[in-house]
Amino acid sequence: MKDINIEDQFQAKIDAEIKIEPKDWMPDEYRKTLIRQISQHAHSEIVGMLPEGNWITRAPTLRRKAALLAKIQDEAGHGLYLYSAAETLGVARIDMLNDLHSGKAKYSSIFNYPTLTWADMGTIGWLVDGAAIMNQIPLCRCSYGPYSRAMIRVCKEESFHQRQGYEILLTMMKGTDAQKRMVQDALNRWWWPAISMFGPNDAESPHSKQSMAWKIKRFSNDDLRQKFIDVTAEQAKILGVTIPDPELKWNEERGHYDFGQINWDEFWEVVKGNGPCNRERLEARRQAWEEGAWVREAATVYAEKKARKNQEAA
Ligand SMILES: [Fe+2]
Ligand SMILES: [Fe+2]
Questions:
Q1: Distance between terminal CA atoms of the chain?
Q2: Helix, strand, or coil here: 258?
Q3: Distance (Å, rounded) from C-alpha 135 to C-alpha 124?
Q4: Relative to the alpha carbon of 79, which ligand is closest?
Q5: Is the pLDDT of residue 3 over 60?
Q6: pLDDT for 119-131, tens place per residue?
Q7: Phi, psi for residue 139 in degrees, rounded to 5
């Protein structure tokens, strides 16, 4: 009897838009769902640094280099806020990282695709950060306090990322024919993986219903994907590029763009670890972790020394 009561109270709080905070009672499933979602999100931020990090030394101008560097550093920061938010649910950061490095934890599949040309930097900003914004703006109103607050700053930074990407493409589209072809080629490669970022169709998304009731999620995968496609189809016109989907067409009756079928077989293959860069990304992460061991050790020793000094002074 008591349990039913406490669950009802929990749901009533959520229905009344009162945030759930770390020390509040919450159902185990709610906690588990959030740990899974926030840690996957954190992993995506730091793995997402890898495909772009590849281009810092090759950025065409000092201005582009500075903007790209700042963007990639932002992603590291996003990872840090999110690991901290997940820690408030009682999971240790080291365990989350071990799960990432062992391949047990997932991250967004989009980062398992290679970045072949400079136009990929523009396209990632435009589409990948653009899709991230669509996904993350509703998360600013997520029922879990620490996650929702982290997302407010993240979203502001994502909007800079999206614009820096789109501006790279606008500049290239004013350039030579070779540059224009480069942009079109990047769009051809990134379009389908980008619209897959919203996840499986609603009918195949088993956790969605409960997450909506708990107000972790506010919109379904298909609704967010539609919104994203409606916005980007117009932006593609301004750029003067062709979205590689022959079925993409404005539907007057629905007030939305119709679009073709996503190749879900490819999507699941990449999720399972068989994408073009899955191995490379995990290897880079593991190597970074090993090579950073001395920094972690030094920081720990320094913190201990400082604490001891403070104690002595007191
Ligand atoms: Fe980010
Ligand atoms: Fe971003």
A1: 51
A2: strand
A3: 15
A4: 1
A5: no
A6: 999 999 999 999 9
A7: -70, -15
